[in-house]
Request: fold
Amino acid sequence: MEYAPIKEEITFELFEKLDIRVGTITKVEEVEKSKKLMKLTVDFGDHTRSILAGIKQERDNPNEIQGKQALFIVNLPERKMAGELSQGMLFDIGYADNLTPCLATPEFPMPDGCRAG
Reply:
């Protein structure tokens, strides 16, 4: 593997602005107008969100992540893609380094909505 350089430093205050939370993926659906996107329904304890993730071609079976907990960034602006609304971003590992991505998951089950950081 060729390691990417470390990004430029940011302040701790800037890092603290990211709201990264644990959520359980309760449903995985295809996005008809996209070759890459899957629509995830994610339970954050006090609410659910629809989050689009470009995992359709990264996995033999994208539905295998249904029922799993993962980390999500929840304070990004909502974004419409392929006719669907995304209300956050899946926080995965490997994609930026051209590796097969995997979920960033808690070591053991945590309450949905629990904050990371």
Notes: Residues 17-103 form a domain with the OB fold (Dihydrolipoamide Acetyltransferase, E2P) fold (CATH 2.40.50.140). Strands lie at 20-30, 38-43, 48-53, 69-73, 79-81, 84-86, 89-93, 102-103. The longest helix spans residues 12-16.
